[in-house]
Design brief:
The protein starts with a helix and ends with a helix. It has two domains: about 1-50, no CATH class; about 80-254, 3-Layer(aba) Sandwich (Glutaredoxin). By secondary structure, the protein is of the alpha+beta class. The longest helix has about 30 residues, at about 55-85. It has helices at about 1-25, 30-35, 40-50, 55-85, 85-90, 115-130, 150-160, 165-175, 180-190, 195-205, 205-220, 240-254, and strands at about 95, 105-110, 135-140, 225-230, 235. Strand 4 (about 225-230) and strand 5 form a beta hairpin. The chain is globular. Helix 1 (about 1-25) packs across helix 4 and helix 7 (about 150-160) crosses helix 10 (about 195-205). Helix content is about 65%, strand content about 10%.
Length: about 250
């Protein structure tokens, strides 16, 4: 049975590689040219792939390794920049905690992500304890493919930030995460006595800042939230307070 499963897995892998190669072959030529490919040529290509499927596998693996190496290099350069020039990394992003960025805790977050909501509770406790030591920086990374309200919530928070109320609005979104939607965004704005006309105008201007954060997240190879960088250390998920304390102790010594 074990040998059978191994053979079956190998057959499935080769079939998948063949389909990938055919797809890449079709993409590489114009549609009209592809329609003129002779059956004989197509059969020759298929025969070569049948005889040497490992070439495609090696190419895919080499590409994946190259991409991973590039991501690691980008992350390392980013970490170094946080330590040497934190203000450039912070840019115009909202911050809380220490006014002088000696230790920077950078967070990529999504207002519709349940793990981000859990992490926010921990972050509030952590920053309250280390508000003279750690600067928390918020970067937007709405996972729009799985969270339909994430972008709208990010725009609303950014607009509140233009009236000096980002963190209050940020907390209100996380504490009412199950109610995300236009009615909630306006209700929070009204309760905070925001200028509603300006709030609506600014929501329409939020794309540039949010896209800038998202592009940075993509360059760093992020696929989920929350994602953190504290000076020289990278971590992710709904991290525990004790873990953050340990990370702070390590980066404080470096």
């Amino acid at each position: 049975m074990t040998n059978f499963l191994k053979l079956a897995n190998k057959a499935l892998r080769l079939a998948a590689l063949l389909m990938l190669c055919l797809a890449m072959f079709c993409w590489s030529v114009p549609a009209q040219a592809a329609s003129r490919i002779s059956p004989q040529l197509e059969e020759q290509v298929l025969q070569i792939l049948r005889q040497h499927p490992e070439v495609i596998l090696e190419s895919v693996q080499a590409y994946q390794e190259q991409q991973q190496k590039q991501i690691q290099q980008t992350r390392q350069a980013f970490v170094e920049q946080i330590k040497t020039n934190p203000k450039a990394v912070i840019g115009e992003s909202p911050t809380t905690g220490a006014s002088e960025p000696k230790i920077v805790l950078l967070e990529f977050s999504d207002f519709e992500c349940p793990y981000c909501s859990k992490a926010n509770t921990t972050l509030k406790q952590f920053i309250a304890k280390h508000q003279d030591e750690v600067t928390l920086v918020y970067k937007h990374f709405p996972l729009i493919s799985i969270h339909p309200e994430a972008m709208s919530a990010a725009k609303a928070a950014w607009a509140a930030g233009q009236q000096g109320k980002f963190w209050e609005y940020h907390d209100a979104l996380f504490t009412q995460q199950d109610k995300l939607g236009e009615a909630l965004y306006l209700d929070i704005a009204q309760n905070m006595n925001l200028d509603l006309d300006k709030f609506d105008r600014d929501r329409n201007l939020a794309d540039t800042a949010i896209q800038k954060d998202m592009q940075l997240a993509e360059r760093l190879g992020l696929s989920g939230t929350p994602f953190f960088v504290m000076n020289g250390e990278i971590f992710s998920g709904a991290v525990q307070l004790s873990d953050m304390e340990n990370i702070l102790a390590r980066v404080s010594k470096s």
